[in-house]
Amino acid sequence: MAEGCMMALRYGMVFFNLLFWLGGCGILGVGIWLSVTQGNFATLSSSLPSLSAANLLIAVGTIIMVIGCLGCVGAVKESRPLLLAFFILLLLIFFLEIISIMLFFIYQDEIDRYAQRDLKKGLQLFGTEGNVGLTNAWMIVQTDFRCCGVTNHTDWFEVYNATRVPDSCCLEYSDNCGLDNPGTWWTAPCYERVKDWLNDNLVALWIFALCTALTQILGLVFSMTMFCQAVKVETFYA
């Protein structure tokens, strides 16, 4: 009976980590595709130019693939070192996620202020050579969220040194519409619009976070159970 349970656990862990690995491959593939086709798309930060959607997806996909590979091979071979490595890496990531969430809520106001300052600084790079990713990202954000600037549409006045905004701020897009009357521009701040969108989708975000945490906990339990069983078997036959 115990042997049957361990066999089921072994196959379950292999299947779990195979899906984990395939998911990592998919995320990595999307990241590489974004990097090749869109450049540094979604890079809004001037102080962290490498923090783009493509780079984040590549990093996350690679980490998931490595962890999934360790768990899958460790389960197939019942290798104690691989199972232990899988457990330690997954536990480390789990604790880092918890610490990051706690720090975010503790320093939320400071993070808000820093993010707004950094985004305003990034506006100065809009439309400049070598910053196509940042320019495209701002155009998409302002068009999709129907907003203009970080905290106000007047943020752009400092960029252009004139009463002007990018054409993506216009209620109805047309070439050089950012030079028209301010009454034809979006005036809502993009920072608040994005925060409102996140708050509106908070339930879905928490469900995703809980599902991720549950998956990680199951992986920790399965790997440690198999590791302990492998130790018992080796001790028995020693």
TrEMBL record:
Protein topology in the membrane: Multi-pass membrane protein
Could you name the Gene Ontology cellular component terms for this entry? Answer: plasma membrane
Q: Where in the cell is it found?
A: Membrane
Residues crossing the lipid bilayer are 12-36, 56-76, 83-107, 203-222
Q: Which residues form a coiled coil?
A: none
Keywords noted in UniProt: Disulfide bond, Glycoprotein, Membrane, Transmembrane, Transmembrane helix
Question: Which Pfam family would be a valid example here?
Answer: Tetraspanin
Please report any disulfide bonds recorded for this protein chain, giving both cysteine positions.
C148-C169
> Could you tell me the superkingdom of the organism this chain comes from?
Eukaryota
Q: Which PANTHER family does the record match to this protein?
A: TETRASPANIN, TETRASPANIN-4
Homology family: Belongs to the tetraspanin (TM4SF) family.
Identify this protein by name. Tetraspanin
The opening ranks of the lineage are: Eukaryota, Metazoa, Chordata, Craniata, Vertebrata
